[in-house]
From TrEMBL:
Record GO biological process: SRP-dependent cotranslational protein targeting to membrane
Source organism phylogeny: Eukaryota, Metazoa, Chordata, Craniata, Vertebrata
Protein name: Signal recognition particle subunit SRP72
Signal peptide range: none
Domain Signal recognition particle SRP72 subunit RNA-binding: 540-596
Coiled coil (UniProt feature): 94-149
């Protein structure tokens, strides 16, 4: 009895210690006391509960869950349901957490809060929205603002991933979290400018709220703003401002935020901007998408987009095996998704295996009829790239749901025209027009009003037939158009033109429907038109000038004749006393005094004969011989040219024979040779 009493007293002291440590937040010390209590009584339910709570507070979720699973007889689901579900949630065992919550006999407020979080992680947004609405309606405590923030996050997720138009929740956007979630919802709707304004407001509110705390530094504020700035950069990227977006993305990466999900999204967006350029930077960034825990931070669609971009990056970097491996893995995860098979086909095309790529796409189209249209469009593009235009047309015409679309009709007609297959082009028009006739007849219960698209197709068909000389075939289309709009003079004129070659009598009958010349006369001032500048110019050009106008034009011609021409500039060395060379306009080779080019004259003079001697002949230096030579026309560079009026040309008009420039060049040549050493 004394031992039992001593044990009870020790347990009471330990419980006091646990209570005091719990109030102080010292859960590590409280855990030690709880373990001592359990040594006294290993099945104490309260002690086991306290141990689980202490482990959760210390972040030891796995150990806490182990304690719960070990003592299932004592810790039943009614007693420990919330703690067990919370541990599973924090260990990313989301499905298990959902089962634990649903199996609890009593749904407490804590379990409902956790239930909302679990549904959000499972991307069951409709159920999550209903759960949070119920919580907000039936709860009144200090956590109301957090619940509203979570509710706005659910609406933003619906808008972004499920393309659901969000309803107005009537939430007052007093916090930066609410502003941020509202901006995300606007991005999902494509309202980018409004979303940017919301993000700017969120940034302002965030700075205000954090600057009130003296312990928060500027670095802490920038770290908190990183997710807002990341969303701003995403809007810039969507708007085509890729340089601004890239700069902001890189600024966020330099801050080294702890949120691995944010880093993965930013790295992925940079890779999409780089595309097939700057692949080395993309290879560095792709490492951020492989960080531990990323799969628990992002939605399924985000993770899928990252994997797609990894496969594309492998293709751009010529890693064919890696690309095939990633795309095959993606196809096994999402067999109905279109992108994996398109990536595989693109890789095969890069390897010049076009036939294999077309076969791969055809197999996918047969297995997934819902995606057949997009696949066949790709197949047609590949056929066109190979030069098989006719086969491409056959593939396009097999897409029944697009045969009547104006874009498809235009593409087919253009391709058939390129192949000079006019009959097939007309057949495409006919099928499209028949589709609209049947479709409109079924909708209007026998009435036959033509839609603008239908009428446009008929007109294009008629114009095409007229252009290619098929006037007989164009008549029915033109009659249909004129029937719809009898006041259309252009269509009536086309119809008369077509009938004039087929049935002239019918053309005469139809011509009576043309408006008279009186009704078509325009109010034109003939005198003003004739006196206009354009009319005068035409008459002048035609040479039909009469009367006053002719005199006026002649007067203008006299004025033009009186205009003096500017004197041409004379050469700098021009001498009026010297007779110009009559052969100056001829090329040098064709002139009578040309004696051929003396090759290597200076070169021959260097290094020959004794030092100081010259190769110049004495006869060339004989002045008497020069004076007795017959007079010739002055030539540039001649020493003393003789003319009929003057024996000597002034120095400023004519260069002497021994020009200083020649001497200067010889000196420069000697200087160059001096570098090698003598």
């Amino acid at each position: 009895k004394m031992a039992a009493a001593a044990g009870a007293a020790a347990a009471a002291g330990l419980w006091s210690e646990v209570n005091r440590c719990g109030q102080n937040g010292d859960f590590a010390r409280a855990l030690k006391s709880v373990n001592k209590i359990l040594q006294i009584n290993k099945d104490d339910v309260t002690a086991l509960q306290c141990k689980v709570v202490c482990l959760i507070q210390n972040g030891n979720f796995k150990e806490a869950l182990g304690v719960i699973n070990t003592h299932t007889k004592v810790l039943t689901s009614d007693v420990i349901a919330f703690e067990k579900a919370y541990c599973e949630y924090r260990l990313n065992r989301i499905e298990s957490a959902l089962k634990t919550i649903q199996s609890a006999s009593q749904q407490t407020d804590k379990l409902k809060e956790l239930y909302g979080q679990v549904l959000y992680r499972l991307e069951r947004y409709d159920d999550c929205l209903a759960a949070y609405r119920d919580l907000i309606r039936n709860s009144q405590d200090e956590y109301e603002e957090e619940r509203k923030t979570n509710l706005s996050a659910v609406v933003a997720a619906q808008s972004t991933w499920e393309k659901v138009v969000p309803e107005d929740l009537g939430l007052r956007e007093a916090t930066y979290e609410l502003c941020y979630n509202s901006a995300c919802a606007l991005i999902g709707q494509g309202k980018l400018n409004e979303a940017m304004k919301k993000l700017q407001k969120a940034e302002e509110l965030c700075r205000q709220s954090l600057s009130e705390d003296s312990d928060v530094t500027e670095e802490d504020i920038e770290a908190e703003l990183a997710i807002i700035h990341g969303q701003m950069a995403y809007i810039m990227q969507l708007q085509g401002r890729t340089e601004d977006a890239l700069q902001l993305y890189n600024q966020i990466i330099k801050l080294k935020p702890t949120d691995v999900g944010l880093l993965a999204v930013i790295a992925n967006n940079i890779i999409t901007i780089n595309k097939d350029q700057n692949v080395f930077d993309s290879k560095k960034k792709v490492k951020l998408t492989n960080a531990e825990g990323v799969e628990h931070k992002l939605s399924k669609k985000q993770l899928q987009a990252i994997e797609f971009n990894k496969a594309l990056l492998a293709m751009y970097t010529n890693q064919a095996d890696q690309c095939r491996k990633l795309s095959a893995s993606l196809q096994s995860q999402s067999p109905e998704h279109l992108l994996p098979v398109l990536i595989q086909a693109a890789q095969l095309c890069r390897e010049k295996q076009h036939a294999k790529a077309v076969g791969l796409l055809q197999d996918f189209a047969d297995q997934h009829p819902a995606s057949a249209a997009e696949i066949k469009l790709t197949m047609a593009q590949l056929k066109i790239a190979q030069g098989s235009v006719t086969k491409a047309c056959m593939i396009l015409r097999s897409i029944e749901e697009l045969q009547h679309k104006p874009g498809m009709v235009s593409a087919l007609v253009t391709m058939y025209s390129h192949e000079e297959d006019i009959d097939s082009a007309i057949e495409v028009f006919t099928q499209a027009i028949q589709w609209y006739q049947q479709h409109q007849a079924s909708q209007t219960r026998g009435a036959n009003p033509k839609s603008p698209v239908h009428l446009s197709l008929i007109r294009e068909a008629a114009n095409f037939k007229l252009k290619h000389g098929r006037k007989k075939e164009a008549i029915s289309d033109l009659e249909e158009l004129w029937k719809q709009n009898p006041k259309d003079v252009h269509t009536l004129a086309q119809l008369i033109s077509a009938y004039s070659l087929v049935d002239p009598e019918k053309a005469k009958v139809l011509s009576k429907h043309l408006p008279s010349s009186d009704t078509m006369s325009l109010k034109v001032d003939v005198d003003a038109l004739e006196n206009s500048h354009g009319a005068t110019y035409v008459r002048k050009k035609a040479g039909k000038l009469t009367g006053d106008n002719q005199q006026k034009e002649q007067g203008q011609g006299e004025v033009k004749k009186k205009k003096k021409k500017k004197k041409g500039k004379l050469p700098k060395n021009y001498d009026p006393k010297v007779t110009p060379d009559p052969e100056r306009w001829l090329p040098m080779r064709e002139r009578s005094y040309y004696r051929g080019r003396k090759k290597g004259k200076k070169k021959d003079q260097v290094g020959k004969g004794t030092q100081g001697s010259t190769t110049t002949g004495s006869s060339e230096l004989d002045a008497s011989r020069t004076a007795s030579s017959p007079p010739t026309s002055p030539r540039p560079g001649s020493g003393a040219a003789v003319s009929a009026t003057s024996n000597v040309i002034p120095p400023r008009h004519q260069k002497p024979a021994g020009a200083p420039a020649t001497k200067k060049k010889q000196q420069q040549k000697k200087k160059k040779g001096a570098k090698g050493g003598w």
